[in-house]
Amino acid sequence: MILDIEILVVQSDTREQILKTNFKPIIVLIISIFIITLVLFRNFFFNSTYLLKSLGELSVDPEIAFKNNKPTFLEFYAEWCEVCKEMAPQVSAIKDNYEKDINFVFLNVDNQKWGNYIQKFAVNGIPQVNLFDKNANLLSTFIGKQDELKIRESINNLKKEEEPYEKIVNAQFSTIQENKNNEVNPRSHG
């Protein structure tokens, strides 16, 4: 009986050792597959966010855009906005096609520096695209996810002198979240 117990203990120890030795390569394999997947599909996972950020960084200053006698494409966006990220490749393609003739301004709603523009143009859903003629008159407002062809059509109409104001709202948009990062309260300084 003691011999049977010893055999069971030895068999149990052997199973644990086999599991431990087989478990390490499995963990290494899973981590390797994860890393390789991230590397191979990094553009898929990170491209839209990077594209939004680069559009914002390369943006024409709005003060210059409204005074240089060129039509203006003004987009309000946020890097966390899924609809903004989804539309970023199309907006980038539009920018590439028209940037010689039109100012492209991209304002991140999370940047308090643009608060006056957010209020002035009543931004409460993003992405919001405003199109202005060369005299800085607002001609069209697009809120939410838009068809690229509709935006291109409106941009082509900017060349017309008399264009009535048009507001197009799509149900797919992100509501603006109040930014409380820089709020000051009595206890925040001490």
How would you describe the overall organization of this protein?
With 190 residues, the protein is an alpha/beta fold. The protein folds into two domains: 40 residues; 129 residues, Glutaredoxin, CATH 3.40.30.10. Helix content is 48%, strand content 16%. It has six helices and seven strands, in the order H-H-H-E-H-E-H-E-E-E-H-E-E. The strands form two sheets. Strands 2-1-4-5-6 form a five-stranded mixed beta sheet. Strand 5, helix 6 and strand 6 form a beta-alpha-beta unit. The longest helix has 39 residues. It is elongated. The C terminus is likely disordered.
- Average pLDDT across residues? 77
**Largest sheet strand order:** 2-1-4-5-6
Q: DSSP helix count?
A: 6
| Total of domains | 2
In CATH, the homologous superfamily of the largest domain goes by the name Glutaredoxin
Give me the CATH fold name of the largest domain: Glutaredoxin
Shape: elongated
Strand content: 15-25%
Poorly predicted runs: 182-190
| SSE sequence, one letter per element | HHHEHEHEEEHEE
Class derived from helix and strand content: alpha/beta
Major sheet: size, sense and barrel closure? 5 strands, mixed
Helix fraction? 40-55%
How many strand segments? Answer: 7
| CA-based gyration radius | 27 Å
The CATH C-level class name of the largest domain: Alpha Beta
Distance between the termini: 73 Å
CATH architecture of the largest domain: 3-Layer(aba) Sandwich
